[in-house]
Amino acid sequence: MSEQSALRVSRAAAPASGRAAALRRRYRLLRRPLALVSWAILVAVLVIGFFGPLVTDLDPLRQTREAFLPIGSPGHPLGTDDLGRDVLARMIYGARPLLVVSLVATALAAVLGIGIGLVAGYFGGRVDWWLMRLIDLAVAFPSILLIILIVAGMGAGETGLTLGIGLALAPGLARLARALALRESAKDYVSAAQIGGARTPGIILTEILPNVAGPLLAQSIMTLSTAAGFAAGLSYIGLGIQPPTPDWGYMVAAGQEFLFNAPRLVLLPALATLVFVVACNFVGDDLRDVLDPRSNR
Amino acid sequence: MKRALLRLLAVIPVLLALSTIVFLAMRWIPGSPATSLAAGGNMNATAEEFTQSEERIRVALGLDQPLWKQYLTFLGDLVTLDFGTSFYGSNSVLKLVGEALPATIELTVAAMLIAILIGVVTGVIAAWKKDTVVDGAIRVGATVSFSLPWFALGILGVVVFGVVLGWLPIIGRLPNSLGYHPTTGFVLLDAILQNRPELVWPWVKHLILPATTLALSMAGFITRIVRTAVLEVLGDDFVRTARMKGLSESAVLRHHVLRNAALPIVTVLGLQFGALLGGSLITEMVFAYPGVGNLLVSAVHQRDYPIVQGAALAVAFLFVMVNVVVDLLYLVLDPRLRKVTA
Amino acid sequence: MVEQIGSVGLSRRSLLRAAAMIGATTGVASLMASCGVADGGSSSGDGERSGGTLTLGIDGTSAINDPAFYTTVGDWMAVDCICRGLTFISFETTEVQPDLAESWDISADGTTYTFHLRKGVKFHDGTELTSKDVVASLNRQFNKDDPTLPKGASRPLSSLNATIRAIDDMTVELKLPRPDGTTLARLSDIGGRIISAAALEKYGADIGKNLVGAGPFKFVSATSGQQVVLEAFDEYYKGRPGVDQLVLKQVQDPSTIVSSLISGDISATQFTPFSAAPRLRNDDNVTVYDTPFGFDAIMMLDARKPALKELEVRQAINYAIDRQAIIDQAFFGIAGLPKGYAIPPAQPCYDESLADLSAYDPDKARELVRSVGAEGRTLHIIAASDSWHPKAAQIVKQNLEDVGFKAEIETVEPATYFSRIFDTNGQFHELMIWERNSYVPDPDNMVGAMASPSQAVYSNAASGLGTLAGAEVFDELLYQAKNMPSGPERTKLYSEIQRKWATEYMTLVMLAVATNFTVSGANVKGLNVDALSNFRCFPEGARV
Predict the structure, then answer these.
(1) Tens-place pLDDT, residues B175-211
(2) CATH class of residue range B98-341
């Protein structure tokens, strides 16, 4: 029911008149530069996160007795932190854990959520009912508790964090996938495939999935931004990456004590996280516009 | 009716499954409460004394029983609504959760109200000024708002308003000097019941920072929904009619547009309440706000099984019930849907 | 950093008192054969009433205040205020003073203590102190089957193995299996606090929710995870405390602690993050106290683990640690080099001739590593995730890697730390970063607790000292040391023990000696910060 209502809201947004559509196009053009910037940021963060450590010879772990050097110090363009480590190096290396955790967690959420959603939507009836109760359960499980339990069981670190976030974010995608599959499975091409004797997994994967891939991909990118926010936040409360491995979320937490004398230790990683998360959101928006023209949220 | 009843009944297996998962997970994670309790304040004990003390505590807490027996006991207690007592002293779980839950609900509702206020105002303006710079700015702002990492926002709020400006208190829920003794646990209700209006302002002041932090993450989302819904209604005939009748723009907005746009908005809000509840559990940790989130997290760390079980169940129950109510409300409110699904 | 011994921030009155005590100062153990004399002077309000509320920031509260049941430091600080013991140590000196016991006699063989109770002491419920209260309270420590013990009670004084009985209404007799010179000091600890027998009868195992003692503050309310509220007890036998209300408020987030101190939301706390030191020293809203260094920042080495089985490896680790970096970067100067090994400067028997046991010599460390072919060996460090621990862990990791080891860190929630240390079969760790506070200022509480091979936490669960050949000798040596009268002889014996322990076993690396960083609002006067920095709470003299 709630899935239907969500869908209804998005459908309701279909252009009401030719005039509105024209204005919408104009708005989209206006928004396009922002989207392009966001794409650039996303790509830049990915490149820096994955390839930065390969090209730089800065050491993010080397401690020195020169703590709290300011921005612009010789040899340390962004200064040093409380243990005398190079902040620029830590910023470059610190992107990777966030990227890995949020990307893998999103992939996990997508595979799990979309899989369950498509199966539920396609079969309907009893299968649907039970799968949706499973989703109810996952949604009702407080995500912070889920993640803390997983981390307590597996030890703090990337694995537990990724698993926890992936599980916590799967239900949202499952609901969307189910609603879309429900809509598609009533269509002629699906009945045609069924009559043609195609096997069920084949129908779901080769017939339905390509038709609903657009909105699901867009939603997955939005999920990526949620996952990144989650990952940074949980690292911040100490459930994620273990020190001294550089990580933006943990850097914010560790720098928090020095907010007054060295605010950059908090502001740099916090801003970087913020820009990355916001960029993910705009990219998701843009993708949705391109891939799923019906919606205009 | 049948559908509504079924929806209600479906809550039970969900909660049961959740309790079971929490029960098993707490016993699966390493670290025994008996060890922590035996070590507590008794760091001088000899190894022999320590082992005896640990074993005695394990027996006292019933942790020496096989897992299935513990689970049966747990289920039996659950059926009789006995949630047990904390391992750390014998505080009743019901009491502890009962003290913490109202605080969490207050925070969630306050955040919701702030988010609605911001979201509806900006959403309506954006729709009204569609495709102008204002609209564009609001839409960009909305995206930024719900992608803000809450923790950074919370810390900045604490520093700016709590420390530098000193306008707002930064921790807790009410100053001790007020001597608040809860009747219902909801401060606003208690202020009325106990006739203590002086409670209200300090309570509001303590709520502003955490609630706003939380609300900002939701406001952008509401802006988008409201904008879409209002745009849809604006295109409808009756709005055009009303305008032709010569009603002022604000009257059209109030009487026709908002009323008709309300339904999808309310639905989405209901769905978002759950997300907000999850968010408040985390926000509590930044502001040392005495809600279920703090209770839950510290209980996991202390391996205080009964509290984790009880608090998780309470949060899930609240969450599931809100969803059920939203679903049912939707059935009641929207005649079209009733026809389709009946 | 300069080591600062002595309290710069002491109030004038306590300085005068401390001066008055000089000359009367003898060792804890020397009191064994003497009688206590009633001490009129105390840290009470002396009639100076200012009223108001004193709010102390605490680590947490489970809303259980029970001397037989440890839950959090904060809950026990409340016990410290609600109840008094037979004896008392103010921490401004390390001297045992009479408290609810006016005086005592000790039998010639040192195993029987006869306490003469103070007359006319009122409990908060109006009853008067008699031997019945003392017997009922201490039986909860000595008798594991006492019906008023809650589930999970840890009974901190159980290791005295004593029995207690009433001789008459105002006299009790404590019998020990063998002499123990630390008895009087340990009775001043929180476990030895006396509860009203009437209240024990009334509440039974629920006494922790309704604690009734004869202390300066009486229990009002407690909310788990939030606060404990106490109020001044008008009839406290040493005079009404200076403030009307005492609130122990849970504040866990470090930056919140700092901003609450500045904004006045909390009046004082010993849980101030060290990192705030540079900033708070320059803030007129607060008073920073340089309390004497009374706690050990330690790293325990688990000698049972294959990676640490050679003594050379453990010695190499000890030589590898750059303690000055830890003092500067993890403690922000609020710590000193551990020149007396495990005995901090605030305690008797501190001996700087042991400074070489904590020498920093990376070359020697590298040589030792090479000598046993331990290059590249991976060591796992476990540390609590709060306060100075994760910082020290990172410095230690760097130090170890600099001399040829590999190191990995795992930080865990403080509440989970113990169950992880005892989980010897579980996830692997060889090095444990932790701290040892002195709830009782006696070397036995440091060296005795950590070097005794029969000890549960440090010597067995953490370091495995108890499994090493020849370590049994420490039990006898430590027993001898703790029963010696204070003086050079005792210091000498403790130094010998420590040297043997460090050079022949090396299961404990001293990282630093430090103090819990205590800060109050500028308006707070007369607070006993020496006690507070040792997690003890005697705020009856404080005014706001």
Answers:
(1) 666 667 777 888 888 888 888 888 888 888 888 888 8
(2) mainly alpha
Q: In whole angstroms, what is the distance from residue B155 CA to residue C253 CA? A: 11
Residue C321, phi then psi, degrees to nearest 5: -80, 125
Q: How confident is the model at residue C218 (pLDDT cuts 50, 70, 90)?
A: very high
Chain A residue whose CA is closest to B276 = A142
Rounded to 5°, the CA angle C425-C431-C432 comes to 85
- Best mutation target among A250, A260, A261, A266 (most C Cβ atoms within 10 Å) is A260
User: Which of A76-85, A135-144, C448-457 shows the lowest per-residue confidence on average (mean pLDDT)?
Assistant: A135-144
pLDDT digits (tens, 9 = 90+) for B255-294: 667 767 777 777 677 767 777 887 888 788 767 788 898 8
Beta bridge partners of residue C408, listed in sequence order: C380
Residue A160 has pLDDT above 60, yes or no: yes
CA B239, CA B253: separation in Å to the nearest integer? 9
| CA gap C20, C17 in Å, rounded | 5
Residue type, B109: V
Q: Give chain B positions within 8 Å (CB) of A280.
A: 147
Residue-range domains of chain A with CATH: 30-291 (1.10.3720.10)
Chain center to CA of A137:
22
Q: Is C117 helix (H, G, I), strand (E, B) or coil?
A: strand
Which residue of A4, A144, A147, A237 to mutate against B (max B Cβ within 10 Å)? Answer: A144
Torsion angle, CA of B24/B26/B28/B31, rounded to 10 degrees? Answer: -160
- Checking if the pLDDT of C17 tops 80, the result is no
Q: Which of A65, A242, A257 sits opposite C410 (nearest CB)?
A: A242
**Looking at the partner chain, which of B148, B229, B327 has a beta carbon nearest the beta carbon of A274?**
B148
- Residue C532 near chain B (CB below 8 Å): no
pLDDT at C200 over 80: yes
Beta carbons within 10 angstroms of residue B79's beta carbon? 8
More reliable by pLDDT, A238 or C265: C265
**Residue B232 with chain A: CB contacts under 8 Å:** 12-13, 16
Residue B16: closest C-alpha in chain A: A137
- Judged by a CB distance cut-off of 8 A, whether residue C57 touches chain B is no
Spatial distance between the Cα atoms of C453 and C468, rounded to a whole number of angstroms: 9
Q: Is the pTM of this model over 0.90?
A: no
DSSP string over B324-341: HHHHHHHHHH-HHHHHHH
Domains of chain C and CATH, by start: 28-65+215-291+516-544 (3.40.190.10), 84-210 (3.90.76.10), 295-514 (3.10.105.10)
Which of B37, B44, B285 comes nearest C152 by C-beta? B37
Q: Strand C378-384 vs strand C431-436: parallel, antiparallel, or unpaired?
A: parallel
- pLDDT for position A263: 82
Structure confidence by residue, pLDDT tens digits, B8-35: 887 888 889 999 999 999 988 888 888 8
Window 250-269 of C, Cβ < 8 Å to B? 250-253, 255-256, 259-260, 262-263, 265
pLDDT score of B338 more than 50 = no
The domain spans of chain B are: 2-79, 98-341
Distance CA B152, CA C463 (A): 40
Residue of C278, C409, C427 lying closest to A243 (CB–CB): C409
Q: Write out the two tokens for A223.
A: 């999920």
Instruction: Give the closest residue to B268 by CA, choosing from B225, B320, B207.
Output: B225
- Spell out the SS3 assignment of C28-66: CHHHHHCCCCCCCCCCCCCCCCCCCEEEEEECCCCCCCE
